């Protein structure tokens, strides 16, 4: 089973994703986002950890291909933070759009190939960015466009896509 869970901020997508693996004894929880020394960010991480069973292992890495190769169930939360880490680490926020797009598409293809080869169930969380206004700043537009493409590629590689809105789930 490979499921992509998407939705807006605070829609309940992480909680839903966790519920999909609730019957598993041990899950590798992949936190692919950037490492930040920020009190608000640390509080968000602590709140997420509090919802997970003690038998789950947290793996903080931007290397999705390696993370998806672990033996057993995997939950990735989330592709939006993974994308941010990719672009941050490569220093590409100000690079020409075609250069950033090529870089992200290459990394996404590697991740999708790893997803296809994953042995156990995989649940991936992402943000739905296609329902809002066009962002004012270039970085916002770039992020929205890139994540939209990442979501399409990963969604096509999954068995199911779930849209979460106001805590309600629509299986697409």
Written overview of the protein:
The chain has 172 residues and is of the alpha/beta class. The chain has one domain: Rossmann fold, CATH 3.40.50.300. Helices cover 46% and strands 20% of the residues. The chain has helices spanning 13-20, 39-51, 64-68, 79-90, 97-117, 138-157; strands spanning 2-7, 28-31, 57-60, 74-77, 122-127, 160-165, 168-171. It has a seven-stranded mixed β-sheet with strand order 3-2-4-5-1-6-7, with helices on both faces. Strand 6 and strand 7 (168-171) form a beta hairpin. Helix 5 packs parallel to helix 6. The model has no long low-confidence stretch (mean pLDDT 93).
Instruction: Supply the CATH superfamily name.
Output: P-loop containing nucleotide triphosphate hydrolases
Low-confidence region ranges: none
Q: Estimate the global geometry from the Cα principal axes.
A: globular
**Which structural class should the secondary elements be placed in?**
alpha/beta
Strand content: 15-25%
CATH topology type: Rossmann fold
Overall pLDDT metric: 93
Compute the number of strand runs.
7
Which CATH-level-2 architecture?
3-Layer(aba) Sandwich
| DSSP summary: helix tally | 6
Please report the distance between the alpha carbons of the first and last residues. 15 Å
Residues in helix, %? 40-55%
Rg on CA atoms, Å = 15 Å
Largest beta sheet: strand ordering: 3-2-4-5-1-6-7
- What is the makeup of the main sheet? 7 strands, mixed
Tell me the number of structural domains: 1
What are the secondary-structure elements, in order, as H or E? EHEHEHEHHEHEE
Q: CATH class, please?
A: Alpha Beta
């Amino acid at each position: 089973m490979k499921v992509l869970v998407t939705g807006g901020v605070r829609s309940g997508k992480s909680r839903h994703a966790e519920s999909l693996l609730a019957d598993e004894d041990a899950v590798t929880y992949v936190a692919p986002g950037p490492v930040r020394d920020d009190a608000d960010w640390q509080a968000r991480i602590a709140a997420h950890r509090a919802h997970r069973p003690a038998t789950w292992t947290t793996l903080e890495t931007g290397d999705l291909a390696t993370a998806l190769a672990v033996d057993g169930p995997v939950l990735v939360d989330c592709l939006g933070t993974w994308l941010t880490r990719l672009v941050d680490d490569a220093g590409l926020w100000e690079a020409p759009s075609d250069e950033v797009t090529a870089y992200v598409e290459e990394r996404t293809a590697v991740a999708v190939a790893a997803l296809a080869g994953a042995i156990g169930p995989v649940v991936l969380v992402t943000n739905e960015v296609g329902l809002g206004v066009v962002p004012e700043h270039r970085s916002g537009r770039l992020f929205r466009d890139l994540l939209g493409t990442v979501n399409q590629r990963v969604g096509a590689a999954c068995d199911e896509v779930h849209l979460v809105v106001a805590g309600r789930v629509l299986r697409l």
